[in-house]
């Protein structure tokens, strides 16, 4: 369900990142969302993109998103860098792929650049419920880091934040290793940022806390090797079956045959089209399912993933 919102305030966090505070056009309050969630945002050009929510999850008055202007933007981030107070946008309901582990006795949040956005809402939630946590924020420079004043001045974060500015990638590992050394078996780690940065976080923390306790939020689609792609059959639990040729996605084939599938990014990032797998072996190519989800083979993202078996039987959620 989409909702019309109005831009109430714009804050230029860095030369490339601006924060937009959104309020409902009808004046009604927002429903509290789960920390780590993101929303679909349709801007003035009609381009739909996903942005993490970085306001306190229980703030019913407004939602906050941060938009980084990307040099290779296809119109989404550039358009949102032109809107101002009073402009109207369309948003979807919050969805979550980066949830806090309820039974963790400690949480370590590790952000790189614009990856601070989903982790900021998680920090708000952890503070509100009195959980043990720390936030490590890496950025190229103080000037290029969003929400620095908030992180330094707000009492909720001040003593739990470690700001790491201008640290080269090859030197980040030692700092991460120091944080990992203090992580106990009940600790969960959450990271968001550039792909190489997150891979390094996983390589440092997974041997200490376990791979299933390192949670990742992706902003970009995975690079897929399509050289060995082949056609396969996808069958719905209703009995309808369709051929998926090389170069076509399951999602596009289903839509072509009149099957309604919920979708958003169509890049394997947002998780909108994730569906159940009843039989067959998926070839996972998404950046939204966890390693455990992929290993189970019980669900897959229909927009990018394919099949390792000749036949897949799926259940649409």
TrEMBL record:
Transmembrane segments: none annotated. Keywords: 2Fe-2S, Flavoprotein, Iron, Iron-sulfur, Metal-binding, Oxidoreductase. InterPro entries: 2Fe-2S_ferredoxin-like_sf, 2Fe-2S_ferredoxin-type, 2Fe2S_fd_BS, Beta-grasp_dom_sf, FAD-bd_FR_type, FNR_nucleotide-bd, MRET, Riboflavin_synthase-like_b-brl. It comes from the Bacteria. The keyword Iron-sulfur applies. One of its GO terms (molecular function) is metal ion binding. Its cofactor is FAD. Residues 1-101 form the FAD-binding FR-type domain. Residues 230-317 form the 2Fe-2S ferredoxin-type domain. Gene3D superfamilies: 3.10.20.30, Nucleotide-binding domain of ferredoxin-NADP reductase (FNR) module, Translation factors. Pfam families: Fer2. This is Ferredoxin:oxidoreductase FAD/NAD(P)-binding subunit. It comes from Streptomyces humidus.
């Amino acid at each position: 369900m989409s909702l019309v919102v109005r831009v109430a305030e714009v804050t230029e966090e860095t030369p490339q990142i601006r924060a937009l505070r959104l309020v409902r056009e009808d004046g009604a309050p927002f429903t509290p969302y789960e920390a780590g969630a993101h929303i679909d945002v349709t801007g003035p050009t009609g381009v739909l993109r996903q942005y993490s929510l970085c306001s306190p999850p229980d703030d019913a008055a407004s939602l906050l998103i941060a938009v980084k202007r990307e040099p290779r933007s296809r119109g989404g981030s550039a358009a949102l860098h032109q809107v101002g107070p009073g402009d109207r946008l369309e948003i979807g309901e919050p969805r979550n792929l980066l949830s806090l582990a309820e039974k963790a006795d400690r949480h370590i949040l590790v952000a790189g650049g614009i990856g601070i956005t989903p982790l900021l809402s998680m920090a708000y939630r952890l503070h509100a419920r009195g959980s043990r946590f720390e936030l490590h924020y890496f950025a190229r420079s103080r000037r290029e880091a969003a929400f620095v004043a908030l992180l330094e001045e707000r009492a909720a974060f001040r003593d739990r934040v470690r700001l790491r500015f201008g640290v080269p990638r090859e030197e980040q590992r030692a700092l991460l290793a120091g944080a990992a050394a203090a992580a106990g078996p009940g600790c969960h780690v959450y990271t968001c940022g550039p792909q190489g940065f997150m891979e390094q976080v996983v390589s440092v923390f997974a041997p200490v806390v376990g791979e299933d306790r390192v949670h990742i939020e992706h902003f970009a689609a995975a690079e897929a090797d399509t050289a060995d792609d082949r056609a396969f059959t996808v069958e719905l639990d209703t009995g309808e079956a369709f051929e998926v040729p090389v170069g076509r996605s399951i999602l596009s084939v289903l839509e072509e045959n009149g099957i309604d599938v919920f979708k958003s990014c169509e890049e394997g990032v947002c998780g909108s089209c994730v569906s159940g797998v009843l039989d067959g072996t998926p070839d996972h190519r998404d950046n939204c399912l966890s390693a455990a989800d992929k290993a189970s083979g019980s669900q897959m993202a229909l927009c990018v993933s394919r099949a390792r078996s000749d036949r897949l039987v799926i259940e649409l959620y």
